[in-house]
From TrEMBL:
It holds the Pfam family Fe-S_biosyn. Gene3D superfamilies: HesB-like domain. This is Iron-sulfur cluster biosynthesis family protein. It comes from Paenibacillus lentus. Residues 3-103 form the Core domain. InterPro entries: ATAP_core_dom, HesB-like_dom_sf.
Amino acid sequence: MIKMEVSPLAARRLRDNLGNQPGVIKLYYDTEGCGCDGVNTLLIQSQKGQFDLPIDAGDLSFVVDQQHQIFYEDTLWLDAEENYPTFKLSGKSSTYSTNVQLRDMRQASAI
């Protein structure tokens, strides 16, 4: 199981985006249109998908697709900067991205 440590600022931003609606945050490795490299993204979904596995992230509900978990280390850190709208995702041996976008997919799935 992946363990993710979320900084207080990143946690506050995620909670603000979740609002009062139920949701789960998915760590997603988007390879569509990216050639051989993928783009790390955070998706807010209404619920966990059939092939999603839990990520231990404290009181935040995180998941990762079982096929995407191989792209990540066992321990991850998610951080944010005060004046920048995206997140930084890193592990012990690498920085995955300093520009991780957060997309709320709850409205898209309701249509």
